[in-house]
Write a structure and sequence with these properties.
Elements (H helix, E strand, L loop, with lengths): L8 H7 L3 H7 L12 H8 L3 H13 L13 H34 L5 H38 L14 H24 L11 H39 L1
Helix pairs in contact: 1-8, 5-6, 5-8, 6-7, 6-8, 7-8
InterPro entries: Hemerythrin-like, RIC_family
Subcellular location: Cytoplasm
Protein name: Iron-sulfur cluster repair di-iron protein
Length: 240
């Protein structure tokens, strides 16, 4: 297993998404910071690398009856999936959470002042993610799809206004990291989405939704950072 220590976290998750649960158990960021090697992460977080790799190996060796092999998908299909699944999820859930958090601040803010910071963080997240997704839908994803179409012999690939696909990808990855940091703070403030003893039904539902939102965001970012983006860079290099 020694050679696996130099494999990146993101590549493990791209190979089999079930390994994400292992990294989460060890509090290892597999999406925004998936470009780090197992060795780097274990040294920094003082984790037993042999134990971690054994957990990963056990998952990879077990039968997978439910996982989807996104790593084998064509890039245009993957881009469509991200937009229609994860982008739509964000658009739908954001408005509901904004309403619920505003209500919680008004009703419970006096006894739970952390709610104001949570609300502030999520408002920032909603605004940034909205702009972020539009840049992907209007700029990055269309170019990825044009590359796929050109490779298939349907058309000519013209030079994009952003120069190389690595430029918007670097911006998207930076923004992903910002959202990861934002949600880490939200998780800390909510005690990992654990409602207080005096929580009403809306309080409990809001925390459950925030937890689900973060989990979906992790999947969303993983598909882009660890699969779509590196393959888009590699595809562009084929045209060079």
């Amino acid at each position: 297993m020694e050679n696996l220590k130099n494999k990146t976290i993101g590549s493990f998750v791209a190979q089999d998404y079930r390994t994400a649960a292992v990294f989460s158990k060890y509090k290892i960021d597999f999406c925004c910071k998936g470009n780090r090697t197992v060795s780097e992460v274990c040294e920094k977080q003082e984790i037993n690398s042999d134990a971690l790799l054994q957990n990963i190996y056990d998952v990879l060796q077990s039968e997978n009856n439910s996982g989807i092999d996104f790593n084998s998908w064509p890039l245009d299909l993957l881009a469509d999936y991200i937009e229609k699944t994860h982008h739509r999820y964000v658009e739908e859930k954001t408005q509901v959470l904004l309403t619920f958090l505003d209500k919680l601040c008004k009703v419970h803010g006096a006894n739970h002042p952390e709610l104001f910071r949570i609300n502030e963080l999520f408002i920032g997240c909603a605004g940034e993610l909205s702009q972020h997704m539009k840049k992907e839908e209007l700029v990055l994803f269309p170019f990825v799809k044009r590359m796929v179409k050109t490779k298939d012999g349907n058309g000519i690939l013209s030079q994009p206004s952003f120069g190389t696909v690595s430029n918007p990808i670097a911006m998207m990855m930076h923004e992903h990291e910002n959202e990861g940091d934002r949600f880490k703070e939200i998780a800390d403030l909510t005690n990992n989405y654990t409602p207080p003893a005096d929580a009403c039904t809306t309080y409990k539902v809001t925390y459950a939704m925030l937890k689900e939102f973060e989990e979906d965001l992790h999947k969303h970012i993983h598909l882009e950072n660890n699969i779509l983006f590196p393959k888009a860079v590699a595809l562009e290099e084929e045209f060079a």
